[in-house]
Each structure stands twice: as C-alpha cells, then as structure tokens.
Specification:
The chain is an alpha+beta fold. The strands form 6 sheets. Strands 8, 9, 10, 11, 13, 14, 16, 17, 21 and 22 form a 10-stranded antiparallel beta sheet that branches. Helix 9 packs parallel to helix 10. The longest helix has 23 residues. The two termini are about 55 Å apart. About 55% of the residues are buried. It binds alpha-D-galactopyranose. The site of alpha-D-galactopyranose has 11 residues, from loops.
C-alpha cells in the first residue's frame, strides 16, 4: 500500500510542465514542487507541497472519502485504503458519519451537504460516486456521478507549490433530459479528525468597526459564518482559521481558508456526534435556487484552504504571500502601492475644480504619487440624496470638464484617480427616471432605500452592458490611472422580475458573475488602470474581488488608534499589500479622538499609505513632518506591503501596547512599529523581541520616529535583536515608534 513503491503509481507533477510517469517507483519530489499521486491499488489520491499533505480515497461504496489534511507525510508512509465508517447505531449511520469529500444530500445523510438537488419528478435523493479522474492544466479533476441519474460533479483540486494552499471548486452538470434545481452548492467540504479542543477564529464587524477577530471553542453543533446580503458584507468575512489548544500566534497546527466569492456566501463549521469537523463553504443556500436545464452546468466559486504548524502568524503569512503571488491581478509581482491622496474627508461632496487643484498642489509637496477625487464630481451629486447613476461631470463644479484638473495633477508628477459607485442609483437621478425597472425589486412591492439609494440589477444583460460602457467611456475619454469602486449598501427585495419565474433566483450568481465580467473587461481594455474595492469601508473584501482589484479600503473608520485593531484583524486574512490606510484630521470625525500627526502617520504606514487630511488646515511643520515620513515610507514600503508580517503584540482586548514587525522577503530589512495607548504607573514599554531575522547576520538599527532606550547598540546580530530584544523609550498617551533594521553588508 505504500504510495512510493506501488508498481501502479501514477505521478503527475502539478508544477511546470506536466509529466506522467507510469509504473516506476517515485524518487522524493523536490520540496518546492506540488505533486500528485494516485495509487491504483489503494485507490488513494495524495497532493503534497512543502509541509502539507492532502489525501483522500475511494471507499468500498465508491464515495470519495477524506483521509488526511495536515502535515506532510513521507512518500513511504503506508496509508490504509479508504473505508467507510461502520454504523454506530441505527441513529448514527455510516452514510452520514463517513467524512466525504463532497457529500450529496441523499441516502441517510444528516450533516451539511455540499450539494442538494431537486428533480422535476419530486426526487431529491442524490448519492455521488467516483467515476474517473484526470489532470488538466495542473489541476486534478475528479468526476462523480449520481447512482442512477446522469448528474455529474467535477471536483477540482490545485495545490500551490510554495504554500501548500489548496484551491477547490466544483462543477455541477445536468446530463439528464430534464431541468433540475440546485438548491445548495458548496465549492468544497473539508474534514478534520475527531478532537475536543478545536478553536475557530473568524472575522466579524459592522460599518466603521470591521475586522474583529473572534475566537470560540467548538462543540458539537454547527457554527455558521455567512452573508445573505448579496455581497461579502462587513458583518462576517469569508475566512476562517481553526486551531487547537497547543496552537498560538507562532506555533501549533492551524487550518485556514477563504472563499473567492463576492456575493452571498456561507461557511459552516460543523462538529458531529463523533467530534469530527466538517467545513463546508460556497454559495449561501439561503434563498438559493439555480435551475439547470438539460445540458447546463453550474460552477462554484473557489474555496482556498491551507495548513501550517506555525500558528496563526504563519497561517497569515502564507495567505499574504499566496495573495501577492497568485491572487492579485498583477501577481506574481504586483506593483507597490503608490502613496495616494484622497479628498473625501477634506471636502465631502463639496468638490470643484479650484478646491481640488489646491489640494493636489499641496499633496504634491509632500511626495504624494496619486491624487484621487472622491464622491461629488458628477450629476446632481451635492449630497447623498441625488445623482448616483448620472456619471457625467457636473458642469457647475467643473465647467471645463475633468481635463484641466487631470492635467494639473499630472504636471505635479502624480497620476489621477476617481471615485465611482457604478452598481447604485439614487431614485432622484436621470438614470432611475429613465429605467425604474433596472433596480433589484419585486413587482408591486416597496423598494427599501439605504443611504437614499437602490441597487442596480447587474444580473440583467442591459444593466451590465450599460455599466460597462459608462466606465469604458470614462476611462477612454480621461487620463485616469485609478478607480475607487464603491458599493454603499446591501441588497433588499432581491427580485429580478424581468427574468423567467423559474430563473429569478439566479440573481445571486448572475449579479456577481457580471460584476466580475465588467471588472475583467475593463482591465483588459485599460490594462494600466488600477482599482480599489471599497464598500462603505471593508464590506467587499474577499479573494474573488481581489483577483480583479489591486487594493481595498478596510474601513471608513480612520481613527489611527481604532485602526490598529482593524488592521490587526485584517491581516489575519489579507495582505498589507492591499490594505489602504489614510492619515486624516485630528480630532477624528468618527470618535473625536485627538492624536499627533506623527502617531497618525505611523499607524497608516503599517499598510499602504494614503493621506486623507484637509491639507489646507496644515501648517509648515506639518508639511515638513509629512514630507519626511512619506520619504521614509517609500524606503520601507516594499518590506511593509509585501514582506513577512509578525504580529508581535496584538492591540486587541484593550491592550495598552501593540507592535508589528515586517521582514523583507530577502531578509535584508526589518521594520518595527510600536504603539502605546497610555502609560500608567510609570511602567516601561514591554521589551520587544524581533522575529524572522537571520541569527548570524548583523543588523543596524535606526529610528524613523520615537527612540530606543539609551544604551541600545546601533548594530547587533539578529540573535541579539531576537533574544535580548529592544527596549523602547515610549511614555505618554498615543505615542508611537518606528525603527528600521538594515542587514549589514557583511557579517562581522
Ligand atoms: C463610502 C466610502 C468613503 C467615501 C464615501 C463617498 O462611505 O467608504 O470612503 O468614498 O462613500 O460617498
């Protein structure tokens, strides 16, 4: 049964050129390549990369059964063939307890199904069995079929060689002669063995309060993370991590995953009566119904999932690297985020050519590279009551159009960005007066407004084409380098009355598919344009939208202290490479907290730096400080945005202190940020021990802001900074320090 020595082993490299080697014993695969094995005698599939192995098999009933997801096994390890559970009792039947890779709802199955169908004759029983498999474009494709009806499911597996992160999705095909209805469809189900100490981490929030890391101990029953809102949502993010008692920030097993879907989604984490876990994620089955005519297919989103022994910190770093090298549109080497200025908090809707030009001139003085004009430039948009949908430049505010402003911005060596909210319409707009039927609604029923706006039904081809053309024209006619793409409410009354009755609920899939279609086509037609995903802050951040956008706006909350926790939570799931962070005015508009400009800068410099303050209120020392810190930021942004992040001290749970450290991928630079909420009892700031340095290399330390305690050496070994550490001289309220550690050219 040894995979390595079985004479019938088929080995397919999933990296680089596809190779098929038949009938030979396997040499050990280089650690950098993902590999796939199928053992014909034990009927086991194994995917290995780096420190991760994922194994499943075909059991005696022909079901695909989960066998192992965790640390890497040796190729020589003998894994027994998959064998279904025995019935435990007449109440715990084998058909329900056996951990299946993709369970259909049928036979006696009481858990969360991956797929639930209904047929026109009333049959709702679906029992999926293995048929065949093949490898195509570095993906393992496994075909399942129902025991009697010609419904086929293709499960897709692809493992990333560098991180061991697995991409799973499914394609559901109706080969019967009649239409059927998909009532529930997951991208994947993942199984973990029985244990009593699983802890689930998830991210929850609300507008201006996103990215809270929640932690709960799992017990038998189901925990559901979801959005029923038509988009990703502020309330829960489609990400999870599961740890055990031995796990912490830096060590121990962690399984983690995220859905690439920007519509209604659900991840359920279910501990069954045998204490096994099943994590199922995909389309939210709530109000879901997708009719498949004969010959049609439905593709699910991708559910990405990984494993590490390195605790939550390493789980995050794997996700960060994977997003930078595989998900982002400019991957594997996305451009570093430019320092931007955004006018929203300075002017709100009160934008005009003179005011924006003045702000642009001031922004250029401090080294800003991109000037973004926010809401208020179009139609009758003087407040949030009117104008959305009418994307023509307001002639009173910009009598000569956008060109003079864009020309000025470009002459100041910045590029130009613009705010849009293409999926929405104010009832008080020409677009709505022309096309009242274009919004999501149920005929004859009220239309609930949020921020005085309604949601355009992008699932309609005419709406999709209109939105695409509007944006295509805007980008063709103007020299625009960047769009801030906003989305300021959730769905309500999600009717699609122009559609055939039986297809109206396809809106949940078709809307998001069309959103992706528009973004994809715009990027193809305007390859230099970058896009930010914003939804009243962090309401639409997920791996689906991140495949098509270059950065995200994590929150409308720009208070630099609140941001520490927001950014901390954000980084559990997403890379700082996309995490925009503005320096805004003090006191902060949201909570009236006052902080120094230096503190505000240091908080924002942990992500992708932007400025959103009203520069007309700044004095010369403010400009001087900003100019210096923007310059410093440019020298460290590669490390901060795309390096390895260590959350040294978490700002969560009311801690007085917090600190992060980023290490560049080549190990040559580390950047430390430390924050103090307020000192009490004269206590010293906790000693900070750095992580991820080369122990034998020497690092020279210098300060961007704040200082180390006197007596701190200017240069020491990595071992010194990691074990003896550094004491910071931080006292007072809302104080911060930033230190840079540069590796000396030669070890002394
Ligand atoms: C949303 C965004 C803000 C700003 C406003 C404009 O709230 O999150 O940054 O763009 O819309 O109306």
């Amino acid at each position: 049964m040894k995979i390595e020595t079985s004479p019938s082993v088929r080995r397919l490299s999933l990296l680089g050129a596809l190779s098929l080697v038949l009938g030979i014993s396997m040499a050990h695969e280089a650690a950098s390549a993902a590999s796939f094995y199928f053992n014909e005698s034990s009927r086991l599939f194994a995917l290995h990369a780096q420190n991760v192995s994922y194994i499943f098999g075909i059991n005696e009933r022909g079901e695909l059964q989960a066998m192992h997801w965790g640390g890497r096994l040796a190729d020589s390890d003998a894994i027994p063939a998959a064998q279904a559970d025995r019935d435990h009792s007449s109440f715990e039947l084998s058909t329900s307890t056996t951990p299946q890779e993709y369970p259909g709802w049928g036979a006696a199955f009481y858990g969360e199904p991956a797929l639930k169908l209904s047929f026109p004759d009333g049959n709702r029983d679906l029992v999926l069995r293995y048929v065949s498999h093949r490898v195509e474009s570095q993906r393992l494709l496994v075909q399942l079929k129902d025991i009697s009806r010609d419904v086929r499911v293709e499960l897709r597996y692809e493992m990333d060689a560098e991180s061991g992160i697995l991409a799973r999705s499914a394609r559901i095909e109706n080969h019967t002669r009649q239409a059927l209805v998909v009532q529930q469809a997951a991208a994947a189900a993942f199984s973990l063995p029985a244990a009593d100490d699983y802890r689930l981490y998830s991210l929850s929030g609300q507008w201006a309060g996103e990215w809270n890391l929640d932690e709960r101990r799992l017990a038998p029953g189901m925990t559901v993370l979801e959005s029923r809102r038509g988009s990703t949502g502020h309330q829960h993010n489609p990400w999870f991590a599961i740890a055990q008692n031995v796990s912490n920030e830096e060590s121990g097993p962690v399984w983690f995953g995220a859905l690439a879907w920007s519509g209604s989604w659900r991840i359920s984490v279910e501990q069954d009566s045998t204490h096994r876990l099943r994590i199922t994620g995909g389309y939210n089955p709530f109000d879901f119904s997708y009719r498949l005519a004969s010959g049609e297919a439905l593709e699910t989103p991708v559910f990405y999932a990984g494993y590490t022994q390195g605790g939550l910190g390493e789980a995050s770093r794997l996700m960060h690297r994977f997003q930078v090298t595989h998900i982002l549109p400019q991957s594997p080497q996305p451009r570093l985020r430019p320092v931007l200025y955004n006018s929203w908090e300075a002017t709100q809707f009160d934008v005009d050519a003179a005011g924006q030009t003045k702000l642009a001139e001031m922004a250029a003085k401090i080294g800003v590279e991109r000037f973004v004009m926010d809401d208020g430039w179009f139609g009758a948009r003087n407040n949030d009551k009117a104008g959305l949908g009418d994307w023509t430049v307001n002639p009173k505010k910009f009598p000569n159009g956008l060109k003079p402003l864009i020309d000025t911005v470009k002459s100041l060596n910045m590029d130009f960005g613009l705010w849009v909210e293409p999926e929405m319409v104010n009832p008080d707009s020409d677009l709505y007066r022309r096309h009242p039927d274009w919004v999501l609604n149920f005929s004859g029923r009220p239309r609930t407004e949020g921020r005085n706006q309604l949601v355009l039904n992008l699932a309609r081809a005419d709406v999709r084409n209109h939105v695409f053309k509007m944006l295509d024209d805007l980008l063709t006619r103007n020299d625009i380098a960047f769009l801030k793409w906003d989305y300021n409410r959730n769905w309500s009354e999600p009717g699609w009355s122009a559609q055939k009755l039986e297809d109206q609920q396809k809106v949940y899939v078709a809307y998001v598919d069309n959103l992706y279609w528009i973004l994809r086509r715009l990027r193809e037609r305007h390859p230099k344009v970058e896009i930010e995903s914003c939804s009243g802050g962090g309401g639409r951040v997920d791996l689906g939208i991140l495949r098509l956008t270059d950065e995200v706006w994590p929150s409308d909350n720009t208070d630099p202290y609140d941001r520490l926790s927001i950014q901390d939570g954000f980084t559990y799931a997403y890379t700082p490479a996309v995490m925009m962070a503005w320096v805004t005015d003090s006191p902060n508009w949201l909570n009236q907290r006052s902080t120094s400009l230096e503190y505000r800068f240091l908080s924002s410099m942990q992500g992708s730096l932007g400025i959103g303050a009203n520069l007309t209120h700044w004095n010369e020392p403010d400009f001087e400080l900003a100019r210096r810190l923007v310059g410093e930021y440019k020298a460290i942004r590669g490390t901060v945005q795309q390096g390895r992040l260590y959350r040294l001290i978490s700002p969560r749970k009311g801690s007085q202190h917090s600190a992060t450290q980023s290490v560049s991928n080549n190990g040559a630079q580390a950047v430390l940020f430390a924050f103090l909420h307020s000192s009490s009892t004269g206590s010293a700031y906790p000693r900070i021990q750095l992580r991820g340095l080369e122990a034998q290399a020497r690092y020279h330390v210098r300060s961007i802001a704040g200082k180390a305690e006197s007596g701190t050496p200017e240069e020491a070994s990595g071992a010194y900074w990691m074990t003896r550490g550094i004491n910071l001289d931080l006292k007072g309220d809302f104080r911060a320090a930033a230190l840079v550690f540069d590796r000396a050219a030669q070890a002394k």
